[in-house]
């Protein structure tokens, strides 16, 4: 479980997050949604410890990570995996070396054990046999899956995904969503996903937090999204004319 | 104020880099890769510059000494001491600041922009240490070796400029090379090359590590790495000259 308590973040004179309190539950896909500029990425970076909040605390179970030193934070980070928007795979390393990197750095496993673990996670993301390829030789969807494989290779307790579907076709996007959700449920991970993809919201939104201009304006799950009459939520969900027509047609029926 | 801000941030970055490595083997592997990049990758350019450096020095001294009472074998002596004390460490490191320094700033800056540094941080890697310390160690080992090569090649360059052309007999040039040799000058060369290696690497890594924005900023960081390294190399060159020669 991750708990954000009254998180505020300012850059100069601009306050980007204005006192956000929310609990991200374990074993669930926790989504942070909102329009561009709402503060989603800043919120995610604060949760993962890349930014320090101006005020407020972030708790990983019973540990207040906002008060930790850099060294202590690094220990906590062994339990954290993150999938970046651009996958952030190291270009000069092969797929296997990319995934093996945290194992090489932090474990004393033998090369054979590490290779076996790499093959396990590659199999989990349905990407067997790409070990020797370089990231540039793989597609965007494959890179996302390699990114997922790298983020789960150390068996994290917390998984963070920044716009996991951006730049992907709808079918691949669904595949990535399903993969993240399955991994979350299988391993009882606390997964936090930053997205504005409506398919993700309706597909894997177990616990959704809508940010608007730096404030938390709505929380709920995918079922409650359709039932809510919150104006900001409705404006966000049905921003596209296509979805508006579908909604109007459903109401008319 | 700006200079104090950068100095403080630079020292903090270096301070956080000098910690116990997470995995010595990984750091060693990275250090070897950097040694290969800096050393093997720069031998040709360093040798090429050094050969002309020595040749030009020999020719110009030959020109200046002609018609004077100073013995011509002094050309070898001057080329040798000029190469060892000044031109090999300084010019080689100025060139390396352009070649290696800009490359380091671009490499680390690119990693920052592609979120590779964030990815490593989230894994728990001390990026200030993993990305900078192997480069520093590699540079302070390899650059003095490159400078040694440059000094030797410069003397060969001087030989090629004045002996085959018939201006000076090879015996005279070799006599000059071995005359009045002061081993302390070699010590000065290594102090200079180690200091310059540290400066150009640390400054370039700092410039790359804190890149923000896009490709324009990355270009600026790379340029700043070269310009600032060059200024610091020249300034410390003067400082070392004052300190080690006692003048």
Cα shape of chain B: elongated
Total number of helices of chain B: 9
Q: How many structural units, i.e. domains of chain B? A: 1
Distance between the termini of chain B: 33 Å
**Which parts of chain B are unreliable, with pLDDT below 50 for 5 consecutive residues or more?**
none
What is the CATH superfamily of the largest domain in chain A? P-loop containing nucleotide triphosphate hydrolases
**CATH fold call of the largest domain in chain A:** Rossmann fold
CATH architecture of the largest domain in chain A: 3-Layer(aba) Sandwich
Number of self-contained structural domains of chain A: 2
* Total helical segments of chain A: 10
Number of strands of chain A: 10
Radius of gyration of chain A: 19 Å
Largest sheet of chain B: none
Could you tell me the strand content of chain B as a percent range? under 5%
CATH class of the largest domain in chain A: Alpha Beta
| DSSP, total strands of chain B | 0
Largest interface, per-chain counts?
Answer: A-B, 25 and 17 residues
Helix content of chain A: 40-55%
């Amino acid at each position: 479980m991750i708990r954000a308590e009254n998180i505020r973040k300012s850059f100069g004179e601009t306050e980007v997050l204005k006192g956000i309190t929310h609990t991200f539950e374990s074993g669930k896909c926790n989504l942070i949604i909102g329009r561009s500029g709402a503060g989603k990425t800043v919120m995610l970076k604060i949760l993962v410890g890349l930014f320090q909040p101006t005020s407020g605390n972030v708790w990983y179970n019973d540990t207040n990570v906002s008060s930790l030193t850099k060294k202590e934070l690094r220990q906590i980070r062994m339990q954290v995996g993150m999938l970046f928007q651009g996958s952030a795979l190291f270009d000069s390393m092969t797929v296997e070396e990319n995934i093996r990197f945290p194992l090489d750095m932090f474990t004393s496993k033998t090369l054979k054990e590490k290779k076996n673990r790499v093959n396990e996670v590659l199999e989990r993301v349905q990407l067997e046999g790409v070990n020797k390829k370089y990231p540039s030789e793989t597609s965007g969807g494959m890179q996302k899956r390699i990114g997922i494989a790298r983020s789960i290779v150390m068996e994290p307790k917390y998984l963070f995904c920044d716009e996991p579907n951006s730049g992907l076709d709808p079918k691949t996007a669904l595949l990535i969503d399903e993969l993240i959700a399955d991994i979350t449920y299988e391993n009882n991970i606390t997964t936090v996903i930053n997205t504005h993809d409506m398919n993700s919201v309706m597909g894997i939104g177990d616990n959704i937090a809508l940010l608007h201009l730096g404030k938390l304006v709505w929380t709920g799950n995918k079922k409650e999204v359709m039932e809510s009459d919150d104006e900001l939520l409705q404006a966000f969900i049905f921003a596209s004319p296509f979805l508006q027509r579908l909604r109007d047609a459903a109401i008319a029926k | 104020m700006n200079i104090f801000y950068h100095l403080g941030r630079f020292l903090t970055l270096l301070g956080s880099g000098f910690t116990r490595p997470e995995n010595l083997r990984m750091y060693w592997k990275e250090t070897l890769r950097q040694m290969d990049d800096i050393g093997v990758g720069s031998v040709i350019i360093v040798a090429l510059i050094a050969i002309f450096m020595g040749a030009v020095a020999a020719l110009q001294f030959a020109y200046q000494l002609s018609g004077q009472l100073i013995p011509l074998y002094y050309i070898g002596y001057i080329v040798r001491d000029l190469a060892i004390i000044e031109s090999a460490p300084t010019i080689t490191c100025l060139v390396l600041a352009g070649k290696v320094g800009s490359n380091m700033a671009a490499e680390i800056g690119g990693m920052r922009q592609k979120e590779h540094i964030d990815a490593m941080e989230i894994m728990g890697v001390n990026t200030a240490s993993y990305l900078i310390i192997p480069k520093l160690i590699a540079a302070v080992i390899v650059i003095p070796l490159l400078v040694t090569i440059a000094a030797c090649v410069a003397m060969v360059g001087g030989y090629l400029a004045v002996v085959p052309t018939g201006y000076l007999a090879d015996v005279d040039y070799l006599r000059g090379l071995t005359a009045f040799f002061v081993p302390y000058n070699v010590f000065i060369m290594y102090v200079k090359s180690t200091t310059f290696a540290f400066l150009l690497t640390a400054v370039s890594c700092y410039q790359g590590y804190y890149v923000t924005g896009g490709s324009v900023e990355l270009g600026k960081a790379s340029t700043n790495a070269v310009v600032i390294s060059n200024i610091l190399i020249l300034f410390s060159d003067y400082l070392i000259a004052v300190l080690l020669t006692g003048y």
